[in-house]
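hiii so um. not sure if this is the right channel but i have a protein structure encoded as tokens and i wanna go backwards to a sequence. like what aa goes where. can anyone help
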């Protein structure tokens, strides 16, 4: 699901956040499959505000490169479309106010600060206790195969240890992503309707199956 459409669909929800970390940002180190030390860094945004979308815009080159590689589309065109979408949402926020949804942006970086990939976790107004939604998950093509997806997907369990379930939606045609999620221990929970699939990871039940 395009995250731009997601925000339009949920723009007027009023959130009641029941899980909160004690701080608004942080980081830790991990070792990837190549034996290289990388940084996992996270930022919390209490509302979907202009600073959130400005940060999202900074990550747009990674998103465009990842999806262009995956979908075999033009990277420059995809980047331009994403920037237009985020600018539209910024304009909408300026007119109507922020969306009361808590977001966590998590990035994976080289020690020199080069961003390799990122994901975003969302806690919405209708989220049940212990549930978080992941969208999107983007790894730069040059950094794929290093096990970064696993670090990013499960980073939320360090940020919010109370999390019990991670949900996501992906296109049925996205075989690469589906393969990754299944290797990480996600299972198809319900069909959102063509062309999307819903996947769920339940902490403590499927954790041992994560192999990526």
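sure thing!! here u go:
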């Amino acid at each position: 699901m395009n995250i731009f459409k997601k925000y339009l669909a949920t723009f007027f929800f009023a959130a009641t956040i029941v899980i909160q970390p004690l701080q608004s940002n942080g980081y830790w180190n991990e070792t990837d499959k190549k034996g290289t030390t990388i940084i996992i860094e996270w930022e919390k945004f209490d509302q979907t505000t202009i600073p959130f979308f400005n940060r999202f815009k900074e990550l747009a080159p990674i998103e465009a490169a990842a999806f262009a590689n995956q979908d075999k589309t033009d990277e420059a065109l995809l980047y331009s479309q994403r920037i237009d979408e985020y600018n539209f949402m910024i304009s909408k926020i300026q007119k109507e106010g922020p969306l009361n949804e808590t977001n966590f942006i998590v990035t994976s970086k080289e020690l020199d600060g080069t961003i390799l990939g990122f994901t975003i976790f969302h806690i919405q107004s209708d989220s049940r206790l212990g549930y978080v939604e992941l969208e999107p998950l983007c790894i730069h093509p040059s950094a794929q195969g290093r096990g970064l997806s696993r670090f990013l997907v499960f980073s939320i369990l360090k940020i919010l240890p109370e999390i019990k379930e991670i949900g996501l939606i992906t296109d049925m045609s996205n075989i690469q992503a589906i393969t990754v999620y299944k290797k990480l221990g996600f299972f198809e929970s319900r069909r959102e309707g063509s062309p999307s699939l819903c996947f769920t990871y339940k902490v403590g039940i499927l954790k041992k199956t994560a192999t990526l």
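oh and The longest helix spans residues 75-96.
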